[in-house]
Amino acid sequence: MNFEFFGSTQIVFGCGALSQLGGMAKSCGKNAIVVTGSGSINALQLTDLLADQGLSFTQFKVVGEPSILVATQAASLAKEANADFVIGFGGGSVIDCAKAVSAMITNPGTLLDYLEVVGKNQPLIRPGAPVIAIPTTAGTGSEVTRNSVLSVPGEKVKVSLRSVNILPRIALVDPYLTVTMPPSVTASSGMDAFTQLLESYLTPRANIITDQLSIVGLEHIAQSILQAYQDGQDIKAREDMSLGSLLSGMTLTNAGLGVVHGFAGPIGGLYNAPHGTICASLLVSSMKINLSKLQKLDPHHPALSRFIEVSRILTGNKQAKVEDGLVWITSLSKKLDIPRLSSLGIKKSDFDLIIEKSSRSSSMKGNPVQLSREDLYQILEDAL
Q1: pTM to 2 decimals?
Q2: In the chain, domain spans
Q3: CATH number, span 10-178
Q4: What is the pLDDT of residues 350-361, one digit of tens each?
């Protein structure tokens, strides 16, 4: 049994954990670049905590999901301000931007030197500036991942800057920060975390540690996602969702993902649609094809036993069959009002381009079974 496991240096989890920020920030440096989203309503509380410690800071707001241009602008501002550490405060895209800024504060060249697929994919030479990642959504788990997903408008794709050198030094997860998420964002981000846990459990790259984290994460999200969607003020449900998201980040960064996320990056780049919504829209059709393909290939395929375990977790029935989990996911998607791909502006005429771009995604390599072009086309058609 051989495996590696990467994670943030320190994880601080709990309701009210944000109050501990001041001391943590002081341990990282004296001058911060604070990357926030345009709607981060608790950012004032954050900057007050920094000011109380006598720390200097410069704020950069990310509108929407970050492009390489936005990340480059933020890095330039950080260098001009002589920032020696980075705070990412917001959703996964904000934290991804913060990690890219961290890399470019300490490393030479441009982001394209280090991006995969469309860039040179060179390794980062030096560790990035320390990052404190504070999520205000429960979805991507970006606070504990070693990649930064950025859009490249000229190529109409989203790609990753991927390195252990951008793992946040501190992941500060306070479920209280997620209670203001509207139901639609709770649903899409929650299903993103759910998908990450599911795909990293089903991939052949999973290991004994990621398996346990995936199972616990799936249990917490399964019991709370609908409640969090229906009642955003339910702190227990928000806590479960934040924990599931955190664990999903740990599993994906160590085990990888599958076909849903293989599609998500290219589709997000082509249509500028929210990542979590794309993943949620594709999940049911992707799992249908995976199950069908596995059953035809080998009725005793190891991945099928994992599907059965997932079914038992989701339904709470120890006698559940492989198809029961798919029924549960389909029902949940309807209750959460998950949109069809067509509502995101996706057209059947673009399927060939989507498949072409998706085939180069690293996540496709982690799928439990190899899928043909026809299989990929069927997934998109069923989700349309």
Answers
A1: 0.95
A2: 10-178, 183-383
A3: 3.40.50.1970
A4: 999 999 989 888
